[in-house]
Amino acid sequence: MKEEALVRNLNTFQRFLEVAALTDGEMTNNNNIAQDCGVSANTVGNYFDILEDTLLGFRVPAYTKTMKRRLVQAPRFYYFDIGVANHLLHRKELVRGTAEYGHAFEHLVIQELRAWLSYKESMEQLSYWRAYTGQEVDAVIGDARVAIEIKSVEEVLPRHLKGLKTFASDYPESKLLIVSLDPINRKMGDVECIYIIDFFRRLWSEGI
Questions:
Q1: Whole-angstrom Cα distance, residue 161 to residue 166?
Q2: Could you tell me if 114 and 141 lie in one domain?
Q3: DSSP letter at 182?
């Protein structure tokens, strides 16, 4: 089988798994990963296909439906559970305020959104949005029906809303949410700030 042939070099495949963990939740760049692993970009693409086919990971596509600005189109890759990435990177403790904690926090919310869409047998796609100028939104539900920014901060500030506000200028009908560790649920302009536990409760009881 093609899959067996690809992973026969276990050392190379193990290296790929570790590099994929390092870039968990980020845009995939097969050329960069190929250089790190010593294989071709096509092989890296096939490796990612194997992880998806075996349900060990999934890719979140970029939302690109716009005529107003140039958008990034590369997908983001996530392992099926943040624990897999932590194990591969030998991370035993995540400290609040670190980049690693922020990545894990985002991964958790993305994972939950994906599970919710699957459980509801929704036809809406989960995607993310990023402009070449740097503004981004971590999760987009359906045809820009909902836009969600995910921040592991304990106080949401106006600067955390820049991506959502840029997104809203292109998609003014979107529902805008920011999910965080800020325990005070409130509205900041058109953006609803929701504490992560309350967000999960609402997601599974009412939906979004």
A1: 9
A2: yes
A3: -
Biggest CA-to-CA distance, the chain:
55
Tell me which residue range forms the domain holding 9: 1-54
Mark whether 79 and 6 lie in a shared domain.
no
What is the pLDDT at residue 192? 98
- 163's tokens: 């991506």
**What CA–CA distance (Å, rounded) separates 26 from 23?**
5
71 and 111 share one domain? yes
Closest Cα partner for 63 from 52, 51, 54, 72?
Answer: 72
Closest CA to 128 of 21, 30, 27, 24: 27
What's the number of domains the chain is made of?
2
Tell the burial category of 141 from Cβ atoms under 10 Å away from its Cβ (0-12, 13-18, 19+).
buried
Q: How many CB atoms lie within 10 A of CB 67?
A: 5
The answer on 71 and 47 residing in a single domain is no
Structure tokens at 69: 């600005």
Judge if 4 and 20 occupy the same domain.
Answer: yes
DSSP, collapsed to helix, strand or coil, labels residue 154 as coil
pTM exceeds 0.85 for this model: yes
Instruction: Report mean pLDDT in 10-residue bins for the chain, 208 residues.
Output: 54 86 87 87 89 92 78 87 87 86 93 95 94 90 97 96 94 96 97 98 94
